[in-house]
Amino acid sequence: FNNRICCVGAGYVGGPTMAVIAKNCPHVTVTVLDLNQQRIDAWNSDSLPIYEPGLQEVVEEVRGKNLFFSTDISKHIRECDVIFVSVNTPTKTKGLGAGRAADLTFWELAARSIAQHSVSHKIIVEKSTVPVRTASQLSSVLDANTQGNASFTVLSNPEFLAEGTAMRDLAVPDRVLIGGPRTELGSECVNVLADIYANWIPRERIVTTDVWSAELSKLMANAFLAQRISSINSLSALCEVTNSDITEISRAVDTDLELGKGFLKASPGFGGSCFQKDILNLVRASLAQNQSCRFCKPINQRTWLIYSNIERLLAPVAIECALVPHVKIFIAMLSASFILILLFR
Questions:
Q1: In whole angstroms, what is the distance from residue 255 CA to residue 259 CA?
Q2: Is 274 noted as a catalytic residue in this protein?
Q3: Residues 274, 293, 296, 321: which is the catalytic one?
Protein backbone atom coordinates (compact mmCIF):
# COMPACT_ATOMS: atom_id res chain seq x y z
CA PHE A 1 0.00 0.00 0.00
CA ASN A 2 1.56 3.28 -1.18
CA ASN A 3 -0.48 5.50 1.16
CA ARG A 4 -2.49 6.92 -1.73
CA ILE A 5 -6.24 6.40 -2.00
CA CYS A 6 -8.90 7.98 -4.15
CA CYS A 7 -12.67 7.90 -4.36
CA VAL A 8 -14.69 7.96 -7.58
CA GLY A 9 -17.76 10.03 -6.76
CA ALA A 10 -17.82 13.33 -4.86
CA GLY A 11 -21.32 13.02 -3.44
CA TYR A 12 -22.98 12.65 -0.04
CA VAL A 13 -21.00 9.51 0.83
CA GLY A 14 -17.69 9.94 -0.98
CA GLY A 15 -16.94 13.50 0.14
CA PRO A 16 -17.52 13.15 3.90
CA THR A 17 -15.97 9.67 4.06
CA MET A 18 -12.76 10.77 2.40
CA ALA A 19 -12.60 13.92 4.54
CA VAL A 20 -12.76 11.85 7.74
CA ILE A 21 -10.13 9.40 6.45
CA ALA A 22 -7.83 12.29 5.55
CA LYS A 23 -8.26 13.86 8.98
CA ASN A 24 -7.46 10.66 10.84
CA CYS A 25 -4.74 9.43 8.47
CA PRO A 26 -2.37 12.38 7.92
CA HIS A 27 0.17 10.00 6.35
CA VAL A 28 -2.31 9.05 3.59
CA THR A 29 -2.96 11.22 0.53
CA VAL A 30 -6.69 11.21 -0.25
CA THR A 31 -8.19 12.45 -3.52
CA VAL A 32 -11.89 12.72 -4.34
CA LEU A 33 -12.65 12.39 -8.05
CA ASP A 34 -15.63 13.42 -10.13
CA LEU A 35 -16.35 14.21 -13.77
CA ASN A 36 -18.48 17.19 -12.74
CA GLN A 37 -16.12 20.18 -12.73
CA GLN A 38 -18.70 22.39 -11.03
CA ARG A 39 -19.01 19.96 -8.13
CA ILE A 40 -15.24 19.69 -7.72
CA ASP A 41 -14.97 23.49 -7.78
CA ALA A 42 -17.54 23.64 -4.99
CA TRP A 43 -15.56 21.17 -2.88
CA ASN A 44 -12.50 23.40 -3.38
CA SER A 45 -14.42 26.52 -2.32
CA ASP A 46 -15.90 27.87 0.91
CA SER A 47 -19.37 26.75 -0.20
CA LEU A 48 -19.35 22.96 -0.17
CA PRO A 49 -21.87 21.21 -2.46
CA ILE A 50 -23.46 19.40 0.51
CA TYR A 51 -24.12 20.26 4.14
CA GLU A 52 -23.45 18.05 7.12
CA PRO A 53 -22.76 19.38 10.62
CA GLY A 54 -18.99 19.39 11.11
CA LEU A 55 -18.12 18.69 7.46
CA GLN A 56 -16.97 22.23 6.63
CA GLU A 57 -14.55 22.30 9.55
CA VAL A 58 -12.99 18.93 8.70
CA VAL A 59 -12.58 19.78 5.01
CA GLU A 60 -10.98 23.12 5.79
CA GLU A 61 -8.60 21.44 8.24
CA VAL A 62 -7.14 18.95 5.74
CA ARG A 63 -7.91 20.32 2.26
CA GLY A 64 -4.70 21.11 0.40
CA LYS A 65 -2.64 19.08 2.92
CA ASN A 66 -3.63 15.47 2.33
CA LEU A 67 -7.18 15.90 0.98
CA PHE A 68 -7.66 16.95 -2.63
CA PHE A 69 -10.55 17.23 -5.08
CA SER A 70 -9.93 16.69 -8.78
CA THR A 71 -11.41 15.81 -12.17
CA ASP A 72 -8.13 14.22 -13.33
CA ILE A 73 -9.43 10.68 -12.98
CA SER A 74 -6.81 8.94 -15.11
CA LYS A 75 -3.86 10.37 -13.16
CA HIS A 76 -5.13 9.42 -9.71
CA ILE A 77 -6.37 5.98 -10.71
CA ARG A 78 -2.87 5.21 -11.99
CA GLU A 79 -1.26 6.49 -8.78
CA CYS A 80 -3.56 5.01 -6.12
CA ASP A 81 -3.53 1.45 -4.78
CA VAL A 82 -6.93 1.75 -3.07
CA ILE A 83 -9.90 3.09 -5.04
CA PHE A 84 -13.26 3.68 -3.39
CA VAL A 85 -16.30 3.78 -5.67
CA SER A 86 -19.20 5.85 -4.36
CA VAL A 87 -21.59 6.58 -7.21
CA ASN A 88 -25.36 6.78 -7.44
CA THR A 89 -27.33 3.52 -7.68
CA PRO A 90 -30.99 4.57 -8.15
CA THR A 91 -33.87 2.21 -8.84
CA LYS A 92 -34.22 1.41 -12.53
CA THR A 93 -37.06 3.24 -14.29
CA LYS A 94 -37.00 1.18 -17.48
CA GLY A 95 -35.74 -2.09 -18.86
CA LEU A 96 -35.40 -5.44 -17.11
CA GLY A 97 -36.22 -5.12 -13.42
CA ALA A 98 -37.65 -1.60 -13.72
CA GLY A 99 -39.21 -0.42 -10.47
CA ARG A 100 -37.18 -2.83 -8.32
CA ALA A 101 -33.66 -3.47 -9.59
CA ALA A 102 -30.82 -1.01 -8.99
CA ASP A 103 -29.51 0.94 -11.96
CA LEU A 104 -25.78 0.18 -12.06
CA THR A 105 -25.01 2.35 -15.08
CA PHE A 106 -22.70 4.67 -13.13
CA TRP A 107 -21.02 1.68 -11.51
CA GLU A 108 -20.22 0.14 -14.87
CA LEU A 109 -18.88 3.45 -16.19
CA ALA A 110 -16.66 3.79 -13.12
CA ALA A 111 -15.40 0.22 -13.54
CA ARG A 112 -14.56 0.77 -17.20
CA SER A 113 -12.68 3.96 -16.35
CA ILE A 114 -10.71 2.25 -13.58
CA ALA A 115 -9.77 -0.65 -15.86
CA GLN A 116 -8.78 1.71 -18.66
CA HIS A 117 -6.31 3.70 -16.55
CA SER A 118 -4.92 1.03 -14.21
CA VAL A 119 -1.43 -0.37 -14.76
CA SER A 120 -0.96 -2.38 -11.55
CA HIS A 121 -2.95 -4.21 -8.88
CA LYS A 122 -5.77 -2.16 -7.37
CA ILE A 123 -8.03 -2.67 -4.37
CA ILE A 124 -11.53 -1.59 -5.45
CA VAL A 125 -13.83 -0.74 -2.55
CA GLU A 126 -17.61 -0.77 -3.02
CA LYS A 127 -18.87 2.11 -0.90
CA SER A 128 -22.28 2.61 -2.48
CA THR A 129 -25.25 0.47 -1.47
CA VAL A 130 -25.46 -2.18 -4.18
CA PRO A 131 -27.38 -5.41 -4.86
CA VAL A 132 -25.88 -8.62 -3.57
CA ARG A 133 -23.24 -10.08 -5.92
CA THR A 134 -22.54 -6.70 -7.54
CA ALA A 135 -18.85 -7.30 -6.81
CA SER A 136 -18.97 -10.26 -9.19
CA GLN A 137 -20.43 -8.10 -11.96
CA LEU A 138 -17.91 -5.37 -11.22
CA SER A 139 -15.04 -7.87 -11.42
CA SER A 140 -16.32 -9.10 -14.79
CA VAL A 141 -16.37 -5.56 -16.18
CA LEU A 142 -12.90 -4.83 -14.80
CA ASP A 143 -11.41 -8.06 -16.16
CA ALA A 144 -13.00 -7.56 -19.58
CA ASN A 145 -11.43 -4.11 -19.90
CA THR A 146 -8.09 -4.76 -18.21
CA GLN A 147 -4.96 -3.59 -19.97
CA GLY A 148 -1.37 -4.68 -19.41
CA ASN A 149 -0.44 -5.97 -15.97
CA ALA A 150 -3.42 -4.51 -14.14
CA SER A 151 -5.40 -6.72 -11.75
CA PHE A 152 -8.13 -6.07 -9.22
CA THR A 153 -9.51 -7.25 -5.89
CA VAL A 154 -13.03 -6.03 -5.14
CA LEU A 155 -14.05 -5.44 -1.51
CA SER A 156 -17.42 -4.48 -0.06
CA ASN A 157 -17.35 -1.70 2.54
CA PRO A 158 -20.94 -0.42 2.79
CA GLU A 159 -21.70 2.93 4.39
CA PHE A 160 -24.01 3.26 7.39
CA LEU A 161 -24.59 7.01 7.41
CA ALA A 162 -27.67 8.99 8.32
CA GLU A 163 -28.33 12.46 6.99
CA GLY A 164 -27.56 15.04 9.66
CA THR A 165 -25.25 12.74 11.65
CA ALA A 166 -22.92 11.53 8.88
CA MET A 167 -19.76 13.04 10.38
CA ARG A 168 -20.47 11.54 13.78
CA ASP A 169 -21.33 8.20 12.14
CA LEU A 170 -17.95 8.25 10.39
CA ALA A 171 -15.96 9.40 13.42
CA VAL A 172 -17.56 7.03 15.95
CA PRO A 173 -19.28 4.25 13.99
CA ASP A 174 -21.15 1.35 15.57
CA ARG A 175 -19.15 -0.88 13.23
CA VAL A 176 -17.16 -0.85 10.01
CA LEU A 177 -18.02 -3.77 7.75
CA ILE A 178 -15.46 -5.07 5.24
CA GLY A 179 -16.13 -8.00 2.95
CA GLY A 180 -13.48 -9.60 0.78
CA PRO A 181 -12.74 -12.75 -1.23
CA ARG A 182 -11.88 -15.83 0.85
CA THR A 183 -8.40 -16.06 -0.66
CA GLU A 184 -4.92 -15.20 0.58
CA LEU A 185 -4.82 -12.08 -1.59
CA GLY A 186 -8.36 -11.19 -0.57
CA SER A 187 -7.42 -11.39 3.13
CA GLU A 188 -4.38 -9.18 2.53
CA CYS A 189 -6.55 -6.55 0.81
CA VAL A 190 -9.11 -6.67 3.63
CA ASN A 191 -6.29 -6.08 6.12
CA VAL A 192 -5.05 -3.08 4.12
CA LEU A 193 -8.47 -1.44 4.35
CA ALA A 194 -8.92 -2.45 7.99
CA ASP A 195 -5.54 -0.88 8.84
CA ILE A 196 -6.73 2.43 7.34
CA TYR A 197 -9.82 2.48 9.55
CA ALA A 198 -7.84 1.30 12.59
CA ASN A 199 -6.15 4.71 12.71
CA TRP A 200 -9.19 5.95 14.66
CA ILE A 201 -11.62 3.05 15.05
CA PRO A 202 -11.07 0.26 17.62
CA ARG A 203 -10.27 -3.08 16.01
CA GLU A 204 -13.22 -4.78 17.72
CA ARG A 205 -15.58 -2.52 15.76
CA ILE A 206 -14.08 -3.51 12.41
CA VAL A 207 -16.04 -6.55 11.24
CA THR A 208 -14.66 -8.63 8.37
CA THR A 209 -16.61 -11.15 6.30
CA ASP A 210 -17.01 -12.35 2.72
CA VAL A 211 -18.06 -10.00 -0.08
CA TRP A 212 -21.60 -11.32 -0.57
CA SER A 213 -22.42 -11.25 3.14
CA ALA A 214 -21.21 -7.65 3.42
CA GLU A 215 -23.35 -6.54 0.46
CA LEU A 216 -26.45 -8.30 1.79
CA SER A 217 -25.87 -7.12 5.38
CA LYS A 218 -26.26 -3.49 4.30
CA LEU A 219 -29.56 -4.19 2.54
CA MET A 220 -30.88 -6.20 5.48
CA ALA A 221 -29.86 -3.52 7.98
CA ASN A 222 -31.92 -0.96 6.09
CA ALA A 223 -34.80 -3.43 5.70
CA PHE A 224 -34.87 -4.02 9.48
CA LEU A 225 -34.86 -0.28 10.17
CA ALA A 226 -37.61 0.25 7.61
CA GLN A 227 -39.58 -2.55 9.28
CA ARG A 228 -39.47 -0.68 12.60
CA ILE A 229 -40.54 2.60 11.01
CA SER A 230 -43.38 1.06 8.99
CA SER A 231 -44.59 -0.86 12.07
CA ILE A 232 -44.84 2.22 14.29
CA ASN A 233 -46.40 4.18 11.42
CA SER A 234 -49.08 1.54 10.85
CA LEU A 235 -49.90 1.58 14.57
CA SER A 236 -50.57 5.33 14.47
CA ALA A 237 -53.87 4.71 12.64
CA LEU A 238 -55.05 2.46 15.50
CA CYS A 239 -54.00 5.11 18.00
CA GLU A 240 -56.30 7.63 16.33
CA VAL A 241 -59.43 5.50 16.81
CA THR A 242 -58.52 4.34 20.34
CA ASN A 243 -57.40 7.77 21.62
CA SER A 244 -53.94 6.38 22.33
CA ASP A 245 -50.77 8.50 22.10
CA ILE A 246 -48.32 7.14 19.54
CA THR A 247 -45.52 9.21 21.10
CA GLU A 248 -46.06 7.55 24.47
CA ILE A 249 -46.15 4.12 22.86
CA SER A 250 -42.88 4.84 21.05
CA ARG A 251 -41.29 5.94 24.31
CA ALA A 252 -42.43 2.81 26.11
CA VAL A 253 -41.20 0.45 23.40
CA ASP A 254 -37.92 2.37 23.04
CA THR A 255 -36.97 1.47 26.62
CA ASP A 256 -37.05 -2.28 25.90
CA LEU A 257 -33.43 -3.37 25.64
CA GLU A 258 -34.38 -6.53 23.74
CA LEU A 259 -35.95 -4.45 20.97
CA GLY A 260 -33.23 -1.80 20.85
CA LYS A 261 -33.50 1.95 20.60
CA GLY A 262 -34.30 4.30 17.75
CA PHE A 263 -36.37 4.39 14.57
CA LEU A 264 -39.67 4.39 16.46
CA LYS A 265 -40.87 7.91 15.65
CA ALA A 266 -44.15 7.89 13.75
CA SER A 267 -43.96 9.76 10.43
CA PRO A 268 -45.58 9.91 6.98
CA GLY A 269 -43.09 7.41 5.56
CA PHE A 270 -39.46 6.34 5.64
CA GLY A 271 -38.16 9.91 5.36
CA GLY A 272 -35.87 9.30 2.41
CA SER A 273 -35.31 7.22 -0.69
CA CYS A 274 -32.74 4.73 0.63
CA PHE A 275 -35.04 2.41 2.59
CA GLN A 276 -37.58 2.06 -0.18
CA LYS A 277 -34.83 1.57 -2.79
CA ASP A 278 -33.04 -1.07 -0.75
CA ILE A 279 -36.22 -3.00 0.06
CA LEU A 280 -37.12 -3.11 -3.62
CA ASN A 281 -33.57 -4.27 -4.23
CA LEU A 282 -34.02 -7.17 -1.81
CA VAL A 283 -37.35 -8.11 -3.37
CA ARG A 284 -35.76 -8.12 -6.80
CA ALA A 285 -32.83 -10.25 -5.63
CA SER A 286 -35.15 -12.73 -3.93
CA LEU A 287 -37.40 -13.09 -6.96
CA ALA A 288 -34.36 -13.62 -9.16
CA GLN A 289 -33.46 -16.60 -6.94
CA ASN A 290 -37.08 -17.87 -6.90
CA GLN A 291 -37.56 -16.75 -3.29
CA SER A 292 -40.74 -14.95 -2.17
CA CYS A 293 -39.14 -12.38 0.20
CA ARG A 294 -42.17 -12.45 2.52
CA PHE A 295 -40.31 -10.22 4.97
CA CYS A 296 -39.83 -7.26 2.64
CA LYS A 297 -43.07 -6.93 0.70
CA PRO A 298 -45.34 -6.04 3.67
CA ILE A 299 -43.05 -3.15 4.64
CA ASN A 300 -43.78 -1.19 1.46
CA GLN A 301 -47.44 -2.24 1.60
CA ARG A 302 -47.84 -0.80 5.10
CA THR A 303 -46.15 2.42 4.01
CA TRP A 304 -48.63 2.72 1.14
CA LEU A 305 -51.48 2.39 3.67
CA ILE A 306 -49.96 5.24 5.70
CA TYR A 307 -49.89 7.43 2.58
CA SER A 308 -53.56 6.59 2.00
CA ASN A 309 -54.43 7.58 5.57
CA ILE A 310 -52.66 10.93 5.13
CA GLU A 311 -54.64 11.52 1.95
CA ARG A 312 -57.86 10.73 3.83
CA LEU A 313 -56.98 13.12 6.67
CA LEU A 314 -55.82 16.02 4.52
CA ALA A 315 -58.52 15.86 1.85
CA PRO A 316 -61.26 17.45 4.05
CA VAL A 317 -58.83 20.22 5.04
CA ALA A 318 -58.11 20.93 1.39
CA ILE A 319 -61.83 21.01 0.56
CA GLU A 320 -62.64 23.35 3.46
CA CYS A 321 -59.82 25.71 2.59
CA ALA A 322 -60.91 25.75 -1.03
CA LEU A 323 -64.15 27.40 0.11
CA VAL A 324 -62.24 30.28 1.66
CA PRO A 325 -60.70 32.85 -0.70
CA HIS A 326 -57.16 34.11 -0.98
CA VAL A 327 -54.62 32.99 1.64
CA LYS A 328 -56.24 29.78 2.83
CA ILE A 329 -56.39 28.44 -0.70
CA PHE A 330 -52.61 28.34 -0.54
CA ILE A 331 -52.85 25.95 2.41
CA ALA A 332 -55.11 23.69 0.37
CA MET A 333 -52.60 23.70 -2.47
CA LEU A 334 -49.80 22.75 -0.07
CA SER A 335 -51.89 19.90 1.32
CA ALA A 336 -52.63 18.55 -2.14
CA SER A 337 -48.98 18.86 -3.15
CA PHE A 338 -47.91 16.99 -0.02
CA ILE A 339 -50.28 14.14 -0.83
CA LEU A 340 -49.01 13.90 -4.40
CA ILE A 341 -45.38 13.89 -3.30
CA LEU A 342 -46.05 11.05 -0.87
CA LEU A 343 -48.02 9.00 -3.33
CA PHE A 344 -45.75 9.34 -6.34
CA ARG A 345 -42.24 9.76 -4.84
A1: 8
A2: yes
A3: 274
